[in-house]
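3.2 Worked example (two chains)
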Amino acid sequence: MKITLTGIDSRTDIARLPDVGGEYSLEYAILISRTKEGKEPRYPSYIRAAQMLNQLQDTHSMAAHLCGAPAREILAGQVPQELDWLRAGLVDRIQINANEKDTLKGWATATQILIDRGITPIFQWRRDTWPTFMDGKGVDVLLDRSGGRGLVEQNWPPRGSYKGNIGYAGGLGPDNLPLGLIKDAGKPTTTDSVWIDMESNLRTDDWFDSHKAVQVLLKMDDYFEYNYN
């Protein structure tokens, strides 16, 4: 089981970011937008984003979520300029936030661009069944019908026969952790093939709130302590 806390930003105190022990793995993610960087709270400037990645690379698993033009470019087979500094070692995974039409058309090309650079791609998915054509292709798939809007998911599709890494997002936060999904994922130390991603409900006045991140991890610790120890 992996927990992804998305949206650390220019005000985030890196020294105060919580870490975890061995019960489950923790990943932090940075939102990347060429037009919004440094202009909106959840999109840090590229300079600040690179600084945070360099500070965290040795102690945390990190991801970047491409939004807007960089996402469209990589799905069109172009190498976005952001990959000059979003490189393996700084980020383990890159999520491509795009509409379904562009994702379906360009996912294979984008996958090759990232895998060639030693980075695992993540694709958003919004349907009720998992994309079997991506299974076994070295990609991770995130069910995310909310798209960072804080909309609570009402229908969590089961894994079924899908064997790849799958993630769940949609209005999750410290007050509504999907414990049913976590239970279904099995003992956390056995696999990272399932993850849950949180973004909007970790924010206060649109800034990443480390206190809410701590609340999430404390609840996760309590859950695993009660169920597995």
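3.2.1 Second chain
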Amino acid sequence: MAGVIFDTAIIMKILLLIIIALTCTLGLANLAGAGNIVVITAGGPKQEAPAEKISRKTIEKIYMKRKFLWKNGKRIVPINLPASAPIREVFTKAILKRDHRTLVEYWNGKHFSGINPPVILKSEEAVKRFLRKVPGSVGYISAENIEADLRVIYTIKEKRAAEPDDSK
């Protein structure tokens, strides 16, 4: 019987160590966050979006459909990721300064004015493909997924708990 108790005690210690290890790993993952997010356009001579960086406020106007044209007069086509995507939640809070419910109400109101929300694509890969095909389009992805033919026009820096908000 003592052998069974001893084996149970060892198993409990191992389980406790596994739980501690998982907790630490998940905690570090939460601290690390999703990393930086970049607002991008496609590069190349046929693209109609600007090469220069733009402000958070300008991106907000684009995504709220209050700015429709680039400085060169070409149409802006903003692209969103699905509402369930964690990167979209970060983008929405950092750029639009709104929550999902407030945005739903906003777009319900705009619907009657004939203004639709930005196109939603299912993945960051789909956003990159769309940007390459549709002149004037703008989207956002994780900075780690940027490719050479895409231009970064704004960066949303990963925030640590103690960092102040300097995105204004």
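3.3 Remarks
The chain has five helices and five strands.
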